[in-house]
Amino acid sequence: MSELRHPAYGTVRPVTPVASVLLENNPSTMTLEGTNSWVLRDGDSGRSVVVDPGHHDPEHLALLVAAAGEVELVLLTHHHGDHADGAPSFAEQVGAPVRAWEASLCRGAEPLARDERIQAAGLDIGVLHTPGHTADSVTFVVTHAGEVNVLTGDTILGYGTTVLSDLGDYLDSLATLSELTAGAVGLPGHGPALPDLLATVHEYRDHREQRLDQVRAALAELGPDAGAREIVELVYADVDPALWGAAEFSVRAQLEYLARRR
Predict the structure, then answer these.
(1) What is the total count of domains within the chain?
(2) Cα 249-255-256 angle, rounded to 5 deg
(3) Amino acid 8: pLDDT
(4) Beta carbons of 132 and 171 less than 8 angstroms apart
(5) Looking at the structure, do residues 107 and 210 belong to the same domain, yes or no?
(6) Is residue 5, in this structure, part of any structural domain at all?
(7) Mean pLDDT of 4-26
(8) DSSP type of residue 176
(9) 54 falls within a domain
(10) Where among 196, 221, 241 does a domain terminate?
(11) CATH number for the domain including 103?
């Protein structure tokens, strides 16, 4: 297996025997070094599957077209623009259909279905609906020659934690991912590959439980009507304030989760 690290901008690098990555030059506090566009193929297949073409960035898309060759299928992990906005243009250039959980994102194909299995580019690709980051987030499980590669989008990142829209859904999704085969390699939408995805899933679950305990403690200190921003300033005091805006989304999700469980 190739070294599990993110590539330089504009360079397609192999990460596992079936997966190569092209890193888009769109770094930010939300996208880390940038968006990972994944090219999947069996070594014996002349065709590929592309996951998350990224923003509508002509330079990035041109490099991706060159790297992907004959594309059988384009898959999207979720609707956010840094993953999906470039898909229509890319699909038109390579003449391939686009599939996603949301029908509005699909082109020339049906939406993805829960627990569906896709056969494309010589690969077996399982579809897991893993909401929490967004309602339409999916994870792709690629099984080939005894190895399991898991494309997690923004559900699991290469490092750090993801922004949430619904904590209850997210905890359920982590429980689903915890049932994956030991030794599975995580291929995230941002950040480096994860050589032990299950270990990261367990870390994410522990982290979420710790954050919930911190939010409960903050509510006890600030009062039950404390707003998300007040809680962020207390709980995330040791985090770069540039990330507090994103943290507010997750705190709101935690407050909604706790309110439903009262």
Answers:
(1) 2
(2) 90
(3) 66
(4) yes
(5) no
(6) no
(7) 85
(8) H
(9) yes
(10) 196
(11) 3.60.15.10
Is residue 45 assigned to a domain? yes
Structural domain of 78: 12-196
Residue 5: what pLDDT? 45
Candidates 259, 185, 226, 224; CA nearest to 18 is 185
CB-CB contact of 41 with 48 (8 Å): yes
Mean pLDDT, residues 75-90 taken together:
98
pLDDT (tens digit per residue) in 28-57: 888 999 999 999 999 777 899 999 999 999
Q: Is 241 inside any structural domain?
A: yes
Please check whether residues 53 and 30 belong to one and the same domain: yes
What are 222-252's pLDDT values in tens digits? 999 899 999 999 988 888 888 888 888 889 9
Cβ atoms 10, 25 nearer than 8 A: yes
- Residue 15, both tokens: 């990460």
Whether pLDDT at 6 is above 70:
no
Q: Are residues 110 and 210 in the same domain?
A: no
Strands 47-51 and 36-40: antiparallel
pLDDT per position as a tens digit, 111-162: 999 999 999 999 999 999 999 999 999 999 999 988 999 999 999 999 988 9
Same domain, yes or no, for 113 and 236? no
Q: What is the pTM of this model?
A: 0.91
Task: Say whether both 165 and 219 belong to one domain.
Answer: no
Domain identity same for 87 and 155 = yes
Helix (H, G, I), strand (E, B) or coil at 14: strand
Q: Which CA distances in Å does 123 have to 98, 99, 127, 148, 227?
A: 17, 16, 13, 11, 47
Tell me how far CA of residue 218 lies from CA of 120, 127, 166, 190, 204, in angstroms: 49, 38, 20, 30, 21
Residue 251 has a CB neighbour count (10 Å cut-off) of 25
